[in-house]
Design a protein that fits this description.
single chain; alpha/beta; Protein-Tyrosine Phosphatase, Chain A; 8 helices
Length: 197
């Protein structure tokens, strides 16, 4: 397992984890605050992950719950933040509310051991990595993604998987930053929230 002390903050996707397993995954690296970045903090299949129930459970474990879905959620209410029916992460990242949400996360890292929470198990399927994590990494924060098996994947390793998935790691005609930005854009387009017709 990668040492979590090397990270400024962590992320986790609750997926269908049992509540006790989820708490264990948070306690191992010493998480003291969850920053919930779900636009809709509700789970029909795992009700223990719905906002109110989760906040109560976390409080009982001595872990703070911070709801940031309005600022950092992946399902924007503004129709202008969709391009061809798909949430536009790059447009979302430029919103003042998003920037303020990032500042809140950064501020909380001074007081807590913070973990961003969303639903998707795989970081590359989730805006917590592709939108929020990317923006925080660009600010110089070291991120790690808690996996269901308890390991912590460094964000740089997640980005390497992203490049491999995009197939652009061997392109000699574009610099690495351009290849990575293109890989982020393509993956976000594949997995971002869609407007229901």
């Amino acid at each position: 397992m990668t040492r979590s002390a090397a990270y400024d903050l962590l992320t986790i996707g609750h997926s269908n984890l049992a509540a006790d397993r989820f708490i264990s995954l948070l306690k191992t690296p010493g998480i003291s605050a969850i920053a919930d970045v779900r636009s809709v903090p509700f789970s029909r299949w795992c009700p223990w992950f719905s906002g109110k129930a989760l906040a109560q459970r976390l409080a009982g474990e001595g872990i703070a719950y911070i709801a940031l879905g309005d600022a950092l959620g992946g399902r924007p209410r503004d129709p202008q933040l969709y391009c061809d029916g798909v949430a536009d992460y790059e447009a979302m990242a430029g919103r003042p509310e998003f920037v303020a949400g990032l500042e809140r996360v950064v501020d909380e890292t001074g007081r807590h051991r913070v973990c961003l929470l969303c639903a998707e198990r795989e970081p590359l399927d989730c805006h917590r990595c592709l939108l929020v994590g990317r923006a925080l990494a660009e600010r110089g924060l070291a991120l790690g993604h808690i996996r269901a098996d308890g390991t912590v994947e460094p964000h740089a390793a997640t980005e390497a998987r992203l490049l491999a998935l995009a197939g652009g790691e061997g392109d000699l005609f574009r610099d690495s930053a351009t290849r990575l930005a293109d890989a982020y854009r393509r993956r976000a387009r594949a997995v971002a929230a869609r407007v229901k017709a």
